[in-house]
Amino acid sequence: MGPRFLLAVAVLFAVAVPLLRAAPVTDRPDLSVKALVSAASKYVAGYEHQFAFLLAEEAYSQVRMRGTATIESRKLKSEFFLTFLPADNEWVAVRDVQTVNGEPVPPRDDLRTLLATKGEFRGLIAQIVDRNARYNIGVTRNFNEPTLPLLLLEAKRVNEVKFERGAVVQDGDVTLVTLLFAERSRPTLVRGPDGSMPATGELVVEAGTGIIRRTRFDLDRAGVKVRLATNYAREPRLNLWLPDTFTERYDTTATGELVMCEASYSNYRRFEVNARIR
Q1: Is 179 in contact with 206 (CB distance < 8 Å)?
Q2: Out of 28-32, 47-51, 100-104, 171-175, which region has the weakest mean confidence (pLDDT)?
Q3: How much is the average pLDDT of 25-53?
Q4: Which of 43, 42, 78 is nearest to 58 (CA)?
Q5: In the chain, what percentage of residues exceed pLDDT 90?
Q6: Rounded CA gap, 139 and 253, in Å?
């Protein structure tokens, strides 16, 4: 399968119960790297069994610059799907672009029908990834998905990633821990014409629950420095933590060209198809 990426996640948000006395040490969350990675991995895996589809509205802007001059810019409005394709055994983000700079996109494939009728066939991910990338400007890429780093926590990859514990902070009654990561196996999640491109970055995780609050994903590929960052927010109607904002930065060292992108997500809802995806 060609290089691709993505995932969204879901777990019930824990409700804090006021205590009359301090909790004993044994009740505190385990802050070891092993426990944190295990909790985050279980959190990611659980999503596959709870939801078939999520749908949101995406507002996505891209700007290409050289120095202080803007060379090109683009604004997209899209329907944004998060779904699992059983045949490829992968999560995928599907960006169905509706308008480009305010102009409607010419007649396009019906993605609902595509997902419903082809979800059981291998290779659909390659079509979707190429489709997602067709309106990108500047640096050639097809991995601009907000939940890309979460794929490193899947059972088939998590043991091939090096994790270290970083900062530990309190957010009310919740302990947030930064997990630093580095890919160490081949092939890597993102590959280029010359092969694997190991990523580094960080995940901000709730100790105990494994809920992911923020991610950062860095690459240094053939003269281009890449940084993807996603902030998650709790969607109260679905009781899920889902991508809220997603930013991208691509610095080309040889030319001084910079591409910056920002996406925001709203109106998350469950999406059901009539056809059964096996």
Answers
A1: no
A2: 47-51
A3: 82
A4: 78
A5: 55
A6: 12
Task: Check pLDDT > 50 for residue 23.
Answer: no
Q: Rounded to an integer, what distance in angstroms lies between the CA atom of residue 94 and that of residue 265?
A: 13
- Residues 62-98 as b/e (b if ≥16 CB within 10 A, e otherwise) read bbbbeeeeeeeebebbbbbbbbbbeebebbbbbbbbe
Q: Are the CB atoms for 36 and 179 separated by under 8 Å?
A: yes
| Per-residue model confidence (pLDDT) at position 20 | 35
Distance CA(171)–CA(144), nearest Å, equals: 29
The pLDDT of residue 130 is above 50: yes
CB contact at 8 A, 255 and 66? yes
Q: Which of 15, 78, 101, 5 is nearest to 44 (CA)?
A: 5
Torsion region of 10: left, alpha or beta (phi above 0 gives left; psi -120 to 50 gives alpha): beta
Distance between CA atoms of 172 and 186, rounded to whole angstroms?
40
Q: Does pTM top 0.70 for this prediction?
A: yes
Torsions phi, psi for 64 (to 5 deg):
-115, 125
Q: Which of 112-121, 170-179, 213-222, 236-245 has the lowest mean pLDDT?
A: 112-121
215 backbone dihedrals φ, ψ, rounded to 5°: -140, 150
